[in-house]
Amino acid sequence: MMSLAAFGSAHRASNWFSCEGLAQGITRLWEPQVHSFFRSNVFHVRGRDGDLVIDGGMGLVPLRPVLGLLPGKPVVAVATHVHVDHVGALSEFQTRLGHRAEAAFFADMADEHTLAGYFREMADGLDHLPYKGWSQQPFHVQPAPLSRILADGDVVETGDRSFRVLHLPGHSPGSIGLLDELNGDFLTGDAIYRGRLVDDLPGSDVPAYRKTMQRLLQIEFSRAYCGHGETIDQDELRSIARTYLDSPS
Ligand SMILES: [Zn+2]
Ligand SMILES: [Zn+2]
């Protein structure tokens, strides 16, 4: 299981998830069989007093059992935003955090906010079925009402690490990032990642996204763990942000 997640190399965490160990007790998990558009990252941060699970993948198979959580140790799930590829497994966790602007959406996980219908209608959404007999058509996201509603500037603690909540709207109204200023780790959700930034979904807001890019240019960090794809550094993040700002809006 997660003890196999040696630093910097990808492993199978289960029949469904792949994982790799990153710096400072953070593990990245992803679902290689899912279409690249929906293949998002789950980050597991092992803290001294509690763990954070940032985002929850598609929820096609249970996530929690593959994390290797310690019995009795608190675990807090943080959703960077309510899209289907990030909240599929959120209901598996008792303590669930997300931003105020999308708080109502977590309670019912309606398709119009999760955009799960896009996945149901995708002909090539999966390379393999998660298990025999699984069907795409009834797929939907389990409701997962928030137990704590986040706003910009809030702090999420693990005992030995503090992550500041940054509201980074544009991709979606309640998109957030989590920044550990002390250790230089920045979890960005879908606010920014390597590849085409998606700003044309229902709920997307290009002017808000441009303001988010201006803000991202000012943030100091060492490693950005993005909602999709590989870890990027500050130079690459700023280059992506500048490219977005330079493109016609
Ligand atoms: Zn998204
Ligand atoms: Zn995403």
Any key phrases for this structure?
single chain, 249 residues, alpha/beta, Metallo-beta-lactamase, Chain A, five-stranded mixed sheet, 6 helices, binds zinc ion
Note down, in words, how this protein is organized:
The protein is of the alpha/beta class and 249 residues long. It has a single domain (2-246), classed as Ribonuclease Z/Hydroxyacylglutathione hydrolase-like (Metallo-beta-lactamase, Chain A, 4-Layer Sandwich), CATH 3.60.15. 17% of the residues lie in helices and 23% in strands. It has an eight-stranded mixed sheet, with no helix packed on it. A five-stranded mixed sheet has the order 9-10-11-12-13, with no helix packed on it. A hairpin with a 4-residue loop joins β9 (155-157) and β10. α5 (206-216) runs antiparallel to α6 (234-246). The model is unreliable at 1-6 (pLDDT under 50). Residues 81, 83, 171-172, 190 line the site of one zinc ion.
CATH topology: Metallo-beta-lactamase, Chain A
The general outline is globular
Order of helices and strands: EEEEEEHEHHHEEEEEHEH
Task: Bin the strand percentage.
Answer: 15-25%
The CATH homologous superfamily corresponds to: Ribonuclease Z/Hydroxyacylglutathione hydrolase-like
Q: Assign a percent range to the helix content.
A: 10-25%
CATH architecture: 4-Layer Sandwich
**Tally of distinct domains:** 1
Write down the CATH class: Alpha Beta
Read across the widest sheet, the strand sequence of neighbours is 1-2-3-4-5-6-7-8
Number of DSSP strands? Answer: 13
Say which molecules are bound, naming each kind only once: zinc ion
